[in-house]
Amino acid sequence: MENNKFESQFEAKLANNDVIEPKDWMPENYRKHLIRQISQHAHSEIVGMLPEGNWITRAPSLRSKVVLLAKVQDEGGHGLYLYTAAETLGVSRDELLDNLLTGKAKYSSIFNYPTLTWADMGAVGWLVDGAAIMNQVMLQRTSYGPYSRAMIRICKEESFHQRQGYEIMTRMAFGTPEQKAMAQDALNRWWFPSMMMFGPPDAESPNSENALKWRIKRETNDQLRQKFVNQTVPQAEYLGLTMPDPNIKWNEAKKGYDYSDPDWTEFKNVISGNGPCNKERLAARNKAHNDGAWVREAANAFAKKRKEVYEAA
Ligand code: BYC
């Protein structure tokens, strides 16, 4: 009876577009759904630092190095806000990190592809951050308060990241023929993996129904994928690059572009641990975690000492 009352209050808040806060009553499945999505998102930010971190020491100018460095640091910050948001749901950071490091947790499929040339820094910023923003703008209005607030800041920074990538693409596409060919090659390799970032087609997305019902997501995987295609095709045209999908064609009736689906078998392979870089990414995260053990020990020792001094005073 009591639970019913709380449940109606929860439903009323959702219907009213109010946010749910950590101390509010929430259904157990809503809590679990959020922990799953927010922690996967946090892991994606942290693993997402690796493909770009790969190019910091090889950036072609001091300016491009500083900008890339700032972008990669932002992603570390995004991971931090998101882990903190997940912790408000009663899960510990240690448990979440353990799930990532042991390969139990998912993170975005996109970060299991290699960054082979400097043009990939352009394509990642343009397409990967472009897809991320397309998905994340709606998450600023997600129903869980701490996630929504984290997303507001993240989206501001992601817009800068997208511009950083598009600037690199512009310089290369309007540069020498060799640079233009590198930009085209990067677009060819990153297009379909970026389309996979939105998740499986709606008909095969087991989590979408609850996510939409609870206003965690406000648009479906396919709706966002379509918006991303509509936004990106004119940008590629401006760059004078060819979209690597011969089926991309304006469809007046739907006021959007038709396009080919990515290879969903490849997607399933990548998210089950068998993408081109899955093993390398997990090994790099584990190494960074182990190498950082002394920092955690020092911070804990300092906190303990400070508490003793405070209590003795
Ligand atoms: N990669 O029922 P579905 C970023 C999984 S951007 C891996 O549709 P949902 C960044 C899904 O988890 C990237 N796994 O799920 C950008 C589910 O498996 P489980 C991160 C994927 O949750 C630039 C199963 O497939 N962004 O961080 O309704 C630089 C069925 O899917 C993927 C976010 O995380 C994928 N692409 O929709 C640095 C945004 N797609 O959990 C960093 C927040 C699906 O049932 N997340 N799966 O075992 C979301 O909006 C949603 O979670 C998704 C998936 C759209 C990703």
- How large, in whole angstroms, is the Cα Rg? 21 Å
Strand order of the largest sheet: 1-2
Major beta sheet summary: 2 strands, antiparallel
Structural class from helices and strands?
Answer: mainly alpha
The proportion of residues in beta strands is under 5%
The average pLDDT score comes to: 96
N- and C-termini, Cα separation = 50 Å
Q: Bound compounds, please?
A: benzoyl coenzyme A
Low-confidence stretches: none
Number of helices: 13
Please trace the helix and strand order, writing H or E for each element: HHHHHHHHHHEEHHH
Molecular shape: globular
Structure description:
The protein has 313 residues and is mostly helical. Helices cover 67% and strands 2% of the residues. It is built from 13 helices and two strands. Strands 1-2 form a two-stranded antiparallel ribbon. A hairpin with a 4-residue loop joins strand 1 and strand 2 (256-258). The longest helix is centred in the middle third of the chain and has 29 residues, at 145-173. The mean pLDDT is 96. Benzoyl coenzyme A (BYC) is lined by residues 36-37, 40-41, 44-45, 48, 75, 106, 108-109, 128-129, 132, 135, 196-200, 205-208, 211, 217, 221, 271.
